[in-house]
Amino acid sequence: MASVFNPAHAEELSYELQKERSYYSKLSSDACEGDSIAYMTLKTDAVDDDNPVAMNSLAWLYLTENCVFENQGVAYAVALQLESADAGYPIAINNYANRLMKGHGNPP
Description:
This protein is mostly helical. The protein has helices spanning 15-32, 36-48, 52-63, 74-86, 90-102.
C-alpha cells in the first residue's frame, strides 16, 4: 500500500536567482572569514540597493555568531530576512517560515 504522505518537492530556483544566490553566498562566506570588501559589497547590495538575495545572505551573516562583522542584533537580521521574504525571494521565505515555526525570533 502506498503512503498517503509524499515528500515535498520544491521547484528549483530560476537560473538568474541561482546565479545571484551563488554570488551572495560566496560573498557572505568570504565576509565570514574576515574579507571586509566582501562584507561591504554584501551590505551595500542588501541595504542600499534593496537586493532580496543579498538581504538574506546578510541576515545569515548576522545570525551566525562566529561571522558577525558588526553586531546588528538578531532583530535587525530577522527584519532583513523578512524583507527579503516579502520581496518574494523563495529561500528567505523558507528560512523565515522555519524560524517562526521553531520559535526563533518573533516578527518585528
